């Protein structure tokens, strides 16, 4: 059930900090048609142009495997994590973002469903490049400049605006079904990207999401385990039309997620934590200043602690559908 509490940060980070994937639309016009591509979900190394605003919407739909066929013991069926956001380029090398997540966590018939707005998130990103030395991302780059290594560092925090004390029909608080952490959660990470061929872009992300212990209304205490992500992707420009300012990229991402054990009332909890390797093939469409990304994410290898008890969490998905739309103005 840890999954239901973890995606209110982007990191992933985010999404965990995943929503920074919309950076692929930052280079508009000819540069976007001929320049680097962007992942579907992972954070990229593109900052927003100075004075420009980005709006976006993302959906992460996770459908879970079920372990127990007994209808008297309902399990998690699916979760939907919506994310609306806005970003602004304060300088060519610094962008800031504000995220508004909404969660829906649905059980099989007879179970407990929860829906609601989750913790608001703030994020900042600094971009720089390497070309005979490191420098902050400049305002304008030629196509040759776009072939240099580009990097970002990013960090942010959630604000406790969701409801951490959500109760089920029997009045019991389930932290995994709640829509808030109760205290800020923090993320820190970095990215690296390079056009390794005129049509092919490599992107990598490393990040960590950290939680604080929170005391719930029933006096129980919970601290979710930290998340560490190592992601890599390749984006290949399949087709572009300069006249109509359109482009289609094929993308393949490999994501490695390490989850720490949760701690309840100071004790490590069973059936939490582990490692998961995901594969995410997808496509990204560009049209003028808009971008639409679609992908299907599946676990290909899992090393979960007490895996047979982790139904409804990361690593036990049948699949996840990732969709995002962004527009720059």
What does this structure look like?
By secondary structure, the chain is mainly β. The protein has a single domain, classed as Beta Barrel (Porin). Helix content is 3%, strand content 53%. The chain has helices at residues 30-34, 143-146; strands at residues 53-64, 76-91, 94-107, 114-117, 120-130, 134-136, 149-159, 186-197, 200-210, 214-215, 221-223, 227-241, 246-259, 263-264, 267-268, 274-287, 290-304, 317-328. Strands 1-2-3-5-7-8-9-12-13-16-17-18 form a 12-stranded antiparallel β-barrel. Strands 10-11-14-15 form a 4-stranded antiparallel beta sheet, with no helix packed on it. It is globular.
Q: What descriptive keywords fit this protein?
A:
Porin, mainly beta, disordered N terminus, 2 helices, 329 residues, twelve-stranded antiparallel beta barrel, 18 strands, four-stranded antiparallel β-sheet, globular, single chain
Layout: helices, strands, pairs:
Layout: H1 30-34, E1 53-64, E2 76-91, E3 94-107, E4 114-117, E5 120-130, E6 134-136, H2 143-146, E7 149-159, E8 186-197, E9 200-210, E10 214-215, E11 221-223, E12 227-241, E13 246-259, E14 263-264, E15 267-268, E16 274-287, E17 290-304, E18 317-328
Antiparallel strand pairs: 1-2, 1-18, 2-3, 3-4, 3-5, 5-6, 5-7, 7-8, 8-9, 9-12, 10-11, 11-14, 12-13, 13-16, 14-15, 16-17, 17-18
Label the structural class. mainly beta
- Written as H for each helix and E for each strand, in order along the chain, the element string is HEEEEEEHEEEEEEEEEEEE
- Per CATH, the architecture is Beta Barrel
Task: Estimate the mean pLDDT confidence.
Answer: 88
Q: How many structurally independent domains? A: 1
Strand content: over 45%
Helix content: under 10%
CATH topology (fold) name:
Porin
User: Number of helical segments?
Assistant: 2
**Biggest sheet character:** 12 strands, antiparallel, barrel
Through-space gap between termini: 38 Å
State the total count of DSSP E strands.
18
Strands of the widest sheet, in order across it, are 1-2-3-5-7-8-9-12-13-16-17-18
The CATH homologous superfamily name equals monomeric porin ompg
Which regions have little confidence, pLDDT < 50, spanning 5+ residues? 1-31
